[in-house]
Amino acid sequence: MGSIIEDVTCPKCSLMAIADYYYRTDEVIIKCPRCGYNYNRYFKWNRDHFFNCASEIEDAHEDDELIIDEQEGFGVYVLRTKDGYKTTNLYNCRITNKHIDEFKKLYFSEETDQERSYLVRYEEGEFKVIIGTLPEDFFTYSENTIQPYILRPLWKLER
Ligand SMILES: [Zn+2]
User: Fold this and answer.
1) What are 36-83's pLDDT values in tens digits?
2) Distance from the CA of 122 to the center of ligand 1, in angstroms?
3) Range of the domain at 151
4) Are strands 38-44 and 65-71 parallel, antiparallel or unpaired?
5) Ligand 1 centroid from CA 69, angstroms
6) Cα–Cα dist 122/139, whole Å
7) Do residues 61 and 89 both lie within one domain?
């Protein structure tokens, strides 16, 4: 499936987020690996379309349910292992002591590359590092504001 991936200004923290726009289906995913904001717009496909092999996606959308799932970010953790594996977790609720304890267990494990792993909280417009060290490029901005077409279902407006 074709998509355009570009960096955009995060609507929540204003740092650089990633937008993945699927132009064939007019679906979009925006994720901020800094504050944890995420936005997901997709169609819950009508089952019949799988059998019809509908080529006209505009027609297919008529019956499909549009889902918009927008989640506020409260921070993220990035966990890197010594063999180079990276996990990013976006928090969509306030980070509690339980979350911190869970992360600590992972952070202090043998396999973790501690110098490149961290847990950062985002609340009231401020980042606060709880554990670890942020990478140098953490506070990076994007030149691109989110295109309005990405946040509105285009196919609907044109009719
Ligand atoms: Zn953000």
Assistant:
1) 999 998 888 765 655 555 455 555 566 778 888 999 999 999 999 999
2) 9
3) 4-34+38-71+140-157
4) antiparallel
5) 16
6) 13
7) no
